[in-house]
Amino acid sequence: MAFIEKRELLNSQSVERAITRITHEILEKNKGALNLALIGIRTRGVFLTKRIAQKIEDIEKVKVPVGIVDITLYRDDIGRTEAHPMLQKTEIPFSVTDKTIVLVDDVLFTGRTIRAALDAIMDLGRPRFVRLAVLIDRGNRELPIQANFVGRELPTTREELIQVQLMEADGIDRVVLGEEKK
Amino acid sequence: MRLRHKNLLGIKDLTAEDINLILDTAESLKEVSTRDIKKVPTLRGRTVVTLFYEASTRTRTSFELAAKRLSADIISIATSISSVTKGETLKDTGKNIEAMNPDIIIIRHPHSGAPEILARSLRPAIVNAGDGAHEHPSQALLDLFTIREKKKRIAGLKVAIVGDITHSRVARSDIYALSKLGASVTLVGPATLIPVEIEKMGVKVSYRLEDVIPESDVIIMLRIQLERITQNLFPSIREYSRIFGLNSEKLKNAKKDLIVMHPGPINRGIELDPEVADGPHSVILEQVTNGIAVRMAVLYLLLGGKEESELTN
Predict the structure, then answer these.
(1) Please, what are the domains in chain A?
(2) Is position B247 within any domain?
(3) Number of structural domains chain B divides into
(4) Which of B31, B52, B190, B224 could cross-link B108 (Cys pair, CB 3.0–4.6 Å)?
(5) Which residues of B are annotated as a binding site for L-aspartate?
(6) Residue B204 falls inside a structural domain
(7) For residue B120, is it within any domain?
(8) Mean of pLDDT values over A98-121
(9) CB-defined contacts A:B, below 8 A
(10) Domain contains B233
(11) Distance between start and end Cα atoms, chain B
């Protein structure tokens, strides 16, 4: 699947500002970092999670627990599509029970990834709250799922592609709109 | 990422890439067994049947737990109490199980090639859980997983496989798997229990365990398969044990980080002295733990997402 870039939606400064704002909103909603834990969805959600955790540490001077969830085992299309990403580890080195979990992903689209991530977390315990933070909400939901913290809302059509590029994986921070090469 | 095979009949059919895919997947699945609730919904609604024509505790329990931890339904058929005792043929039994629409049949059979016979005539995926003296692929995969976990690599390691090579399907699968991933394998045992011309598989042969121990990174001890040995292949159990058994005296010259493995069940005091079996070099129980993760990976990769048209075997 080739990706043809149409235009840049967010540059590196906008990405940085969005992450900063999300961090402040999380802390405001939670009234600080007490009982807070962050869980990133592989792959780019993990990078965002680490950055948010660092910002929380800068602001509140506390380290919040950080985990990684791989949703592959909870997908609703196993056996239906052929190209799955490589199954990777879920690494949540703390008890989720009674914590306020902020689930972090780069793009919120159909909502199916979030559904799978919620099931994965619930299998590990009973959090007090689960909230959702995403860098981009591109609409087109197929399930009744909504984010609590959104970096930028970008209404798109189903055919368009949104690509979030982050320094840790792509060497640059930006969000681009594109389409699939026919 | 997916396995380009419909069945797991033997390691011989797999590429190094296939083996690494299974090991990497198993590494991710190992975490599930450490949870309080040891279950993920991945294979919900899929049915796995185990069909064992030979005794087994470890392998069958391990496959059953693997299937259950992935939420598949599993039915176990022990042939000693089934219609097989009334004279039903393997193919007929297979066809009847197929008619109940399972997704995977896991078979163990005393005759080499039995899983392949099923694979040729049945629709469900077939997993070989040991056939005669042919192959035992899931055992080799869990051996490699354990070695990789301990040594962080396979390539370049020196591995000794000691004992009854002739009757051992584990040895054959291990030889294929280790060679494909670049380890060098030395077989050790009495000449009567090492097949002639086995060097053609790319292995070395030695008749003196003491010579091989100092250079080995891994020693895989095999069980003397008394149930398969029909002629006098060695003078006595005691003599075998003295020459080819592993004890702490012989391990004095071993590398510090040598690991000792055994596919189980152990004949304590014959091929393995209790001091070694329970000692610091032994990773035998870790093999058992890892077996579940590796078998979960096999079931997941055989059932998880792929198209019929792309399958080879």
Answers:
(1) 13-158 (3.40.50.2020)
(2) yes
(3) 2
(4) B52
(5) 86, 169, 223
(6) yes
(7) yes
(8) 96
(9) 63
(10) yes
(11) 17
User: How many Å apart are CA B187 and CA B207, to the nearest integer?
Assistant: 8
List the single best residue of A42, A43, A73, A96 to mutate versus B (max B Cβ within 10 A): A73
B86 and B167, same domain (yes or no): no
- CA B269, CA B267: separation in Å to the nearest integer? 6
pTM of the predicted model as reported, rounded to 2 decimal places: 0.90
| Contact between residue B77 and residue B21 where contact means Cβ atoms under 8 Å apart | no
Cβ neighbours of A3 (radius 10 Å): 12
Residue B39 dihedral angles phi and psi, to the nearest 5°: -160, 135
Task: State which amino acid sits at residue A40.
Answer: G
CA gyration radius for chain B? Answer: 19
At A162-177, the pLDDT tens digits run 999 999 999 999 999 9
Distance of CA B279 to the CA centre of its chain: 23
Which chain A positions have a beta carbon within 8 Å of B21's beta carbon? 86
Domain containing B52 equals 11-135+289-305
Show the tokens assigned to B203.
């292995």
What is the DSSP secondary-structure string of B253-283? GS-TT-EEE--S---BTTTB-HHHHTSTTB-
Question: Cis peptide leading into A43, omega within 30 of 0?
Answer: yes
Contact by Cβ (8 Å): B14, B312: no
Residues annotated within the binding site of B are 58-59, 86, 108, 136, 139, 169, 223, 264-265
